[in-house]
Amino acid sequence: MKSLVINCSKDYNLGTEKITAWLKRNGHQVTKSKPGNTEFVGYDKVFLSAIYTWDLPILVKEAQKAINHTKVEIGGPAASVMPDYIFTETGIKSVFGLDDRFDLEPARYLSAYTSRGCIRNCEFCSVPIVEGKLREIPDFTPASYILDANILACSKSHIEKACEKLSSLPFVDFLHGLDARLLESWQVELFLKKLQMVVWRFTFDSLRHEAELKNALRILKHYGIKPKEKMIVYCLYGFKDTPKDAYERAKQVISLGAHPYAMRFQPMDALAKDRHIPDGWDANSLIEFGEFCNKPTLAWLYSLLRQYSKFLKSSSNSVCL
Predict the structure, then answer these.
(1) Predicted local distance difference test score (pLDDT) of residue 317
(2) Domain enclosing residue 50, as ranges
(3) 248: Cβ–Cβ under 8 A, 6 or more apart, which residues?
(4) Residue 167: band (very low, low, confident or very high) from pLDDT cuts 50, 70, 90
(5) Can you state the angle between helices 56-66 and 83-90, rounded to 10 degrees?
(6) How would you label 82-105 residue by residue, b for 16+ Cβ within 10 Å and e otherwise?
(7) How far is CA 114 from CA 15, 172, 284, in A?
(8) DSSP characters for 56-103?
(9) How many domains in the chain?
(10) β-pairing verdict for 111-112 and 29-33
(11) Same domain, yes or no, for 182 and 34?
(12) Could you tell me if 200 and 242 lie in one domain?
């Protein structure tokens, strides 16, 4: 069997890496490609995946070309969020949610999940749709970039076992952030004992959570972790807020010694990135706030990551941020 796997997103796609490993283990001859780079003649099946909904027009275009030559399967987070769009445009029913065929496929990956799902149900987040309720994955394959939506919501025994499995890695980065509302001293002690933490990432999506964020910083400082040297705080903006609110949160992060990283809200059904203009904002104010936060934060982060430059040269920059 000859199979073609296409990642329709620019970022590192763990799903396409897993399905490639699964296909190879099952005796398939696999070719990995990017959109627009491959003819579809001669393949028994084509697998298309997209992480973000704004990559779906590219995926649909590839599917429309491929269905004239071979069987096509569509999956990925974006496909779970907008299955009706894909079916309307291609006539293909996409795979919804996680794929049990290969989700636990062991191989060497850049990123990993030790758990899936989340205890929160944030309006702006697709995790409840794609991953469902929180569940732990004891048999995960270790990797340096951890993509859990909310690892601190897991049981103490799971967090301890996960840290043990990750302890041999040169570094560990909880890329999607830690929930400051759930941070406790024993977790920080465990991470410091077992893991080579690159950076501590948290979220600050609403001023309602200011007290919890300050408490998280207090715990880190107690253990000698300096926010200015080790801490990024993701600040969602453009979702039920105003520029005044967003700047207040960012400046609060700066005053606490940490680095704000602006995360612009994208609607669930966005077919183009950064086109949504929420009430109270305009195009310029959205861009200006992003630059206010991210230019200095990225300069600092790149400097911090230089010590891992040998590893990062073989990685997608998108994974590292």
Answers:
(1) 43
(2) 2-90
(3) 207
(4) very high
(5) 30
(6) bbebbeebbebebbeebbeebbeb
(7) 15, 12, 39
(8) HHHHHHHHHHHTTTSEEEEESHHHHH-HHHHHHHHS--PPPS--TTTT
(9) 2
(10) unpaired
(11) no
(12) yes
- The full length of the chain comes to 321
The answer to whether residues 281 and 243 touch, using CB atoms and an 8 Å cutoff, is yes
256 vs 233: CA distance, rounded Å: 11
Residue 106: inside a domain: no
Q: What are the backbone angles phi and psi of residue 173, rounded to the nearest 5°?
A: -135, 115
Whether residues 16 and 125 fall in one domain: no
Q: Does the pLDDT at position 78 exceed 70?
A: yes
Within this chain, do residues 57 and 117 fall inside the same structural domain, yes or no? no
Measured over the CA atoms of residue 186, residue 192, residue 195 and residue 201, the dihedral's sign is: positive
Q: Of the candidates 90, 120, 138, which is a domain's last residue?
A: 90
- pLDDT tens readout for residues 21-35: 999 999 999 999 999
Q: What are the φ/ψ torsions at residue 284 (nearest 5 degrees)? A: -65, -45
Residue 104 lies in a domain: no
Q: How far apart are CA 206 and CA 245, in angstroms?
A: 8
Does residue 102 lie within any of the structural domains? no
165: domain CATH number is 3.80.30
Threshold 0.90, pTM exceeds: yes
- Residues 86 and 115 reside in one and the same domain: no
Instruction: Note whether 85 and 180 are same-domain residues.
Output: no
Rounded to the nearest integer, the mean pLDDT of the chain is: 94
> 101 lies in a domain?
no
Q: Which residue has the tokens 């105003």?
A: 242
CA dihedral of 11, 234, 296, 286, whole degrees rounded to 10? 80
